[in-house]
């Protein structure tokens, strides 16, 4: 079995020499004769001093360890905050992604609607339908015999004028 590793030895300059009178004795030292105790203290003074100095130096290590532990706890807290922010960011990104898809769908619908309503072929078809409607109204007006001749001429001229105006617009449109 290996012996545990002790902290490094302190320098002897750091600890002043003490006499045997300054040392605190263990509890049951009265059971030993005074000469034996003095002999042990004088023989092992250096070993005792080294042993005590090793533990005094550990105070610095303990303080440094506690400071490092505080820093580690602070970093852990910051990391947890980072995780929370990352989760919020992911949620916002997924919301943004869904909004972007919704925007693209709406844009495609609008584009389809605009093309079906206002494109050149769509406007041409609409103009042709209007021309057919005006033509059918003029035919219906001609077959209606219950109208006064002045009223008939007025309405017929109005319909034919609209028809020819739209027909001319359609022809110019097709040429361009």
UniProtKB/TrEMBL annotation:
Q: Where are the stretches annotated Disordered?
A: 1-22
- Which domain of life does the protein's organism represent? Eukaryota
The record's Pfam families line, in alphabetical order, gives: Mod_r
Q: Does the keyword section mention Transmembrane helix?
A: no
* Localization in the cell: Endosome
**What start-end ranges are recorded for coiled-coil regions in this protein?**
62-99
Q: Name one GO cellular component term.
A: ESCRT I complex
Ranges for domain VPS37 C-terminal come to: 100-176
Question: What is the name of this protein?
Answer: LAME_0G07558g1_1
Family membership, please give it: Belongs to the VPS37 family.
Q: Which InterPro entries match?
A: ESCRT_assembly_dom (IPR037202), Helix_hairpin_bin_sf (IPR029012), Mod_r (IPR009851)
PROSITE patterns associated with the record: VPS37_C
Keywords of this entry = Coiled coil, Endosome, Protein transport, Transport
Q: Name one GO biological process term.
A: establishment of protein localization to vacuole
């Amino acid at each position: 079995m290996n012996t545990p590793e002790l902290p490094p030895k302190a320098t002897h300059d750091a600890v002043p020499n003490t006499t045997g009178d300054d040392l605190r004795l263990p509890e049951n030292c009265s059971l030993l004769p005074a000469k034996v105790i003095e002999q042990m203290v004088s023989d092992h003074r250096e070993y005792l001093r080294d042993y005590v100095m090793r533990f005094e130096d550990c105070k610095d290590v303990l303080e440094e360890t506690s400071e490092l532990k505080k820093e580690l706890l602070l970093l852990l807290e910051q990391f947890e905050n980072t995780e929370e922010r990352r989760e919020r960011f992911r949620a916002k990104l997924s919301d943004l992604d869904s909004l972007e898809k919704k925007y693209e769908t709406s844009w495609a619908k609008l584009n389809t609607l605009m093309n079906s309503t206002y494109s050149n072929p769509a406007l041409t078809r609409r103009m042709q339908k209007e021309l057919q409607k005006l033509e059918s109204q003029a035919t219906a007006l001609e077959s209606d015999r219950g109208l006064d001749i002045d009223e008939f001429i007025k309405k017929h001229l109005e319909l034919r004028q609209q028809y020819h105006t739209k027909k001319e617009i359609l022809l110019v449109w097709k040429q361009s």
